[in-house]
Amino acid sequence: MPFPVDDVRTVTDEFTAFMEDPDADKPNPIHSTETAREHGFRGALVGGATAFGWTARTIVAALGARWLDNGWVHLKFVNPIYPEDALRFEVEHNNDNIWSLGVKRDKDVCIVGELGLGRAPWFDLLSEPQFHRGVPVADTLPVLTLDNAPVGGQFQPMAVPLSIEAAQTFARDRERETLEILTGDRPRVHPAWVAEQLIHMLHHSYDYGPSIHAQSHIQHLQPAFAGQTFSITADCREVYERKGHHYIVNDGAIWSERGDELVRLRHTSVFRIAKLTTSSGV
User: Any idea which fold 3-120+136-272 has?
Assistant: First the structure.
């Protein structure tokens, strides 16, 4: 369990990364050993949203369960995490409103971030979302490129049912979660589930190959309970190339079945990965 240090200004925890069948084919093949090695990594990459989800206990130990309902986080994924990595999580209080988050493997920093309660300092930089009900995915999807990305436009809205049982299974099996608020009879949706929704949103509109989670901005606006069908909406802010990688930045929102905005977020990902010569981050 997470434990406080220095008069509750720092909370730390340890966790061993895991992945079911890293050698198997995956919807995102960067999470498979063969494809990851083809791109210069030493093995299958653990998903960024999954790894972030493992920090939930540490964050809640530091900021309280209210962070899940009215808190924010900005994450940067700076080095890959592999199955069986021994990870150390640290949430440290920097000032009255901001905490820092770090995930380390030995001396390597894998995830860095800032988080807090209330509205994030970057909240007003996110696109103002509009509610739309989800529509089915098209039979054929275009291949995403820098040229055809819908910069300034919207993606097809997506409907995502999440039953109580499915949410409990996600938390316990995918995240090995122990927090009652995320695994109990009326669970809130897990932060990892929230963080990955704009990944699925992009796949709802475009086809693309191996990809890497680069950054996430997540603002919780009110409690998000499992046992309903959520709507996910998003628009494309920008695309760019850096060091041979092709990036896309999307702003989106998660809506309740009644049309209440529950989460506002920004997702930055590498949708075309340059072949690396080392296992460094992107």
Answer: Thiol Ester Dehydrase; Chain A (3.10.129)
Q: What is the pTM of this model?
A: 0.94
**Residue located via tokens 């993606």:** 155
Domains of the chain by residue range? 3-120+136-272
- What pLDDT does residue 5 have? 43
- Report pLDDT for 1: 54
Question: Rounded to an integer, what distance in angstroms lies between the CA atom of residue 15 and that of residue 122?
Answer: 30
- Sites in the chain below the pLDDT cut of 70: 1-8, 276-282
Cβ contacts of 182 within 8 Å, gap of 6 or more? 56, 68, 167, 171, 175, 188, 190
Quote the pLDDT of residue 17. 98
Return left, alpha or beta for 227; rule: phi > 0 is left, psi -120 to 50 is alpha, else beta: left
- pLDDT in the model for residue 266: 98
